[in-house]
Design brief:
The protein is mainly α. It has one domain. It is extended.
């Protein structure tokens, strides 16, 4: 699909590409994603830094985000840390003292 495709052109491409049993789920989840991440300025602005689809988005790809600071508390030295990649983090609560 070309980057500046109209809604009608995008719909035609996706109509062919997405299996029928996935269309409703994809539709609902794209709307939820848009509401949570691609928010309007009046709703707090977009959250491109949190977006797992940013590398596929013309707006997100060209956006300069503030660099984040990551606190690494492991005694081992980190290996192969890359910028602008998607990753998952599991957080554990600290034990109460």
């Amino acid at each position: 699909m070309r980057p500046q495709a109209s809604a009608e052109a995008a719909h035609a491409v996706l109509e062919q590409a997405v299996p029928d049993d996935c269309k409703l789920d994809l539709h609902v989840n794209l709307i939820a994603h848009g509401r949570a991440i691609c928010r309007a300025q009046g709703n707090g602005g977009s959250r491109c830094g949190d977006c797992s689809l940013r590398s596929h988005c013309a707006y997100g790809k060209n956006l300069r985000l503030k660099s984040s600071t990551i606190l690494i508390t492991s005694k081992k030295s980190p290996a192969n840390i890359q910028r602008d990649t998607d990753f998952f983090v599991t957080l554990k609560a600290r034990p109460k003292r």
